[in-house]
Write a structure and sequence with these properties.
Elements lengths: L2 H7 L2 E2 L9 H11 L8 E5 L7 E5 L4 E6 L12 H11 L9 E5 L2 H4 L3 E5 L16 H20 L16 H15 L7 H9 L11 E3 L8 E3 L6 E4 L6 E3 L1 H9 L17 H4 L4 H12 L6 H28 L7 H21 L1
Antiparallel strand pairs: 1-2, 2-3, 3-4, 4-6, 5-6, 7-10, 8-9
Helix pairs in contact: 5-10, 6-11, 7-12, 8-11, 11-12
Length: 356
């Protein structure tokens, strides 16, 4: 993400036209369902985020964050805010850094779509993976903290925290490829792409073996973390919409995919002088994760498959954003850019899969 895009993603603004709702109804729900809530309520919309619109709810005493399903048509299985809330509530007692969830609403009559309310965690979001303005030592420490957080997540036994049924056991890659293929094929508004169609045929032939399922975040990257205001410590991991049970290496490969992406796609590191920035190389970052997570390093074919799989999945997400933009209910000002980048991602995934 460029500095300009990062600035555009940070902070809040007035609620955008397509995301407006009855704020008085929300205030009444908060009074009944959130302990110690007292109005009056002021609502702003966060600029960042692509899928579920996110809002800052301010009162004289406290501020909250609300995540809501986008209004209008939603593809089955997408925008599962109830799952986001469930996984955060389960992780909280373990000490893993998540925001406290105050309440969940699954009654469409309140705002027209499901939503949940959580605490507003104090800290910093680093929108750019190159982390401009930091010293090399600080960048290295932030990357180490990010790496440690995802490794810690993958060490947690989901059954021990009540998430044994959070996803189906086994065949993670088969199910994920099928899921994103269905969503891509179902969204006729966004059209078809030859490289994406080829990936749907090729990926199932390259799947690596199953492992004991772990909680996978699904969108683990620096701009979904809140760091302490004055240190590299991760205060909270955000945006659990894509979380499920699955293969931990797939989840980590999504985090490491930033090394292969250009700067204008999720602030990729491709072409960056990593040594000059103090950022570990992709191989060093992978090896550090394997040590922290207590696992063996993957073979080169397994690693390239995981990268191609994640590029395919990100392409499917961008395809969905393109469809929502066409239908007029995209949740972000950056929807057009994501839609334009969709074919680039499919080509990159196909090249990595062929080269691996």
């Amino acid at each position: 993400m460029s500095r300009e895009a990062a600035a555009a993603s940070a902070g809040t603004e007035a609620v955008r036209e397509g995301a407006r709702f009855d704020e008085l109804r929300l205030e009444r729900w908060l009074q009944k369902n959130v302990e110690d809530f007292e109005g009056p309520l002021t609502v702003e919309q966060f600029r960042g985020g692509q899928s579920n619109p996110t809002f800052k709810l301010s009162t004289p005493a406290r501020s909250y964050v609300m995540r809501r399903q986008p209004p209008g048509h939603a593809i089955q299985g997408a925008h599962a805010v109830d799952r986001e809330a469930r996984v955060m509530r389960a992780l909280s007692p373990t000490g893993f850094p998540v925001a406290r969830v105050y309440g969940v609403c699954t009654d469409d009559r309140v705002l027209g779509s499901w939503f949940y309310v959580m605490e507003l965690v104090d800290g910093r979001i680093e929108w750019n993976s190159r982390m401009p303005g930091m010293t090399n030592t600080a960048r290295a420490a932030h990357y180490d903290a990010m790496n440690s957080s995802i490794a810690t997540l993958h060490r947690i036994d989901p059954k021990k925290i009540g998430l044994g049924d959070f996803g189906k056991a086994g065949n993670y890659f088969e199910r994920q490829i099928a899921r994103w293929s269905r969503q891509y094929l179902a969204d006729s508004d966004a059209g078809r792409d030859p490289a994406m169609d080829r990936l749907i045929d090729m990926l199932p032939q390259r799947i690596l073996r199953d492992e004991a399922p772990r909680i996978v975040h699904g969108d683990f990257r620096c701009d979904n973390l809140i760091f302490s205001p004055d240190s590299p410590k991760v205060q909270a991991v955000l945006d659990w919409e894509l979380s499920t049970l699955g293969h931990p290496l797939a989840d980590f490969a999504y985090n490491a995919m930033v090394y292969r992406l250009p700067e204008d796609i999720t602030s990729g590191l491709a072409g960056a002088d990593l040594a000059a920035l103090g950022i570990p190389s992709e191989q060093d970052y992978l090896e550090a994760y394997c040590e922290k997570a207590g696992r063996a390093s993957p073979s080169e074919p397994d690693w390239t498959f995981c990268l191609a799989f994640n590029l395919f999945r990100l392409a499917a997400i961008y395809h969905g954003i393109k469809g929502r933009m066409i239908r007029g209910n995209a949740a972000s000002l950056h929807a057009q850019k994501r839609a334009d980048n969709f074919p680039m991602l499919t080509r990159m995934a196909l090249e990595i899969l062929r080269d691996g």
